[in-house]
Design goal:
By secondary structure, the protein is mostly helical. It has six helices and four strands. It binds zinc ion (ZN).
Length: about 130
């Protein structure tokens, strides 16, 4: 008559590999044969909505430049973009991480398309010229 559990298991005390015994005790040292609990589940990655981008110094320079060309003060822009004035100040120093959602609102408040914010310099300068900002 076969026993139900024929899986090879390792003694938690002496590390000897063996089949599970009726008593769930090691044949050699009578240590515990119960397998250790499974490792905890890895944390789920955060949803893409909270994906953040780092404000680079280039981005910071462009954000400050466009804000000044639009003649917005930091408080005015903060109100338009629905963020804190502190946040604008930190972003313009390139010292922050921002969610894409917030960055989009920020750029929209400046009438600055996101793709232009990240565009190569010539394209960004053409945008400024078209907007009459240089
Ligand atoms: Zn053992």
């Amino acid at each position: 008559m076969e026993t139900s559990s024929r899986e090879i298991i390792r003694c938690t005390r002496c590390r000897m590999q063996q089949y599970m015994t009726q008593t769930q005790r090691c044949r050699r040292c009578s240590g515990d044969l119960l397998p250790p609990p499974p490792p905890p589940e890895p944390e789920q990655p955060q949803s893409s909505q909270s994906q953040t981008v780092a404000a680079s110094s280039l981005m910071a320079t462009r954000l400050r430049l466009v804000r000044r060309c639009r003649h917005f003060s930091q408080p005015e822009l903060a109100e338009r973009a629905q963020v804190s004035q502190q946040f604008i100040s930190v972003m313009e120093r390139g010292r922050s991480r921002v969610t894409l959602e917030t960055l989009e609102r920020y750029a929209r408040a400046l009438n600055l398309p996101l793709h232009v914010l990240f565009a190569p310099a010539p394209q960004f300068e053409r945008f400024l010229q078209k907007q009459g900002m240089v």
